[in-house]
Amino acid sequence: MHLKSQREGDILLLSVDAGRVDAASAVFLKDQFRDAVTDHDGRVVINLEKVDFMDSSGLGAMVAARKIIADRALELANLSPTVLKVFRLTRMDKVFVLHDTLKDALDRDLDTPAASSA
Amino acid sequence: MISTERKTIRFCVDATANAVSATLPTIIRRIFATAKDSCAAKDSCNIVLAEVLNNIVEHGYSGQDNGMIVIDAKVRQKFVCFEISDFGDPIPGSVLPNPSPPSCDGPIEHLPEGGFGWFLIRALTKNICYERLDGRNCLRFVVPRV
To answer: Which of A116, B52, B57, B138 has the smallest CB count inside 10 Å?
Structure first.
């Protein structure tokens, strides 16, 4: 599993380059996330466009990432229906800011609350 | 009379996280190959099988890499019926975990990073039961198709 990192203005955009984030790969996500956010104190958006499936290990890694930047929101874009189901059932959708698309995330005004965080 | 019963489909998977990850998409495709199911039913089976199989890899076989998991799946009219067998350690006390919903309240540093697996299994299955039979763990459950 690989986390691609790029800057979009003051936003750090991290894209998960894998179709599955599961018990076989989740351990790498937390470490790569920690490395990626070092020295960045602005918004962080994770693009999950390529991720069709996430299990509870993957969800645990996302929550671990959330704790690493506890002073800010962690924003997630492009959750597949299966991934969204895992977040909703466990109520972990409440602890992230969720965007339907990457464009929604990047266009979001910093001062406006995200529309789909609930 | 046309029977709605279909044959049991059997899959064998090496009990490693990598094998489970690599094989599950094919298993889901094969189970639903002839069934016109909603995406919701497929998603549920996908999530439940991932959690059950990963539990067997992590706890039943405790990281040994020579274990085997057998999945019997049968698509019936209203449910997909599963029987999952492995030859690893028995479930302690033969009692299946039934955790309360994960807590998303409270400070961020207290958020749970685990304990989601059995909660998801319980939320998405019905009639789950466990038996230890001659060195074999046998977990049976159904996933609703609607």
So the answer is: A116
**Tokens describing residue A115:** 């529309």
Interchain proximity A55–B51, CB inside 8 Å: yes
Amino acid letter, B59: H
pLDDT on residue A12? 96
> What is the value of ipTM here, to two decimals?
0.91
pLDDT at A116 over 80: no
Which B residues in the span 20-59 are in contact with A, Cβ-Cβ below 8 Å? 20-22, 24-25, 39-40, 43-44, 46-47, 50-51, 54, 57-58
Whether A118 has a pLDDT exceeding 90, the answer reads no
pLDDT at A115: 52
With CA atoms as reference, the chain A residue closest to B25 would be: A53
Residue burial B18-52, b: 16+ Cβ < 10 Å; e: rest: ebbbebbeebbeebbeeeebeeebbbbbbbbbbbb
Host H or E run for residue B43:
helix B39-55
Q: What is the pLDDT of residues B46-59, one digit of tens each?
A: 999 999 999 999 99
- In terms of CA atoms, which chain A residue is nearest residue B57? A23
Q: Do B102 and A92 touch (CB under 8 A)?
A: yes
Q: Could you give the maximum distance between any two Cα atoms of chain B, in Å?
A: 60
Q: What's the pTM value of the predicted model, to 2 decimals?
A: 0.92
Using a CB-CB cut-off of 8 Å, the residues of chain A touching B52 are: none
Cα nearest neighbour of B55 on chain A: A23
- The reply to whether residue A67 touches residue B120, judged by beta carbons under 8 angstroms, is no
- Rounded Cα distance, A6 and A21, in Å: 20
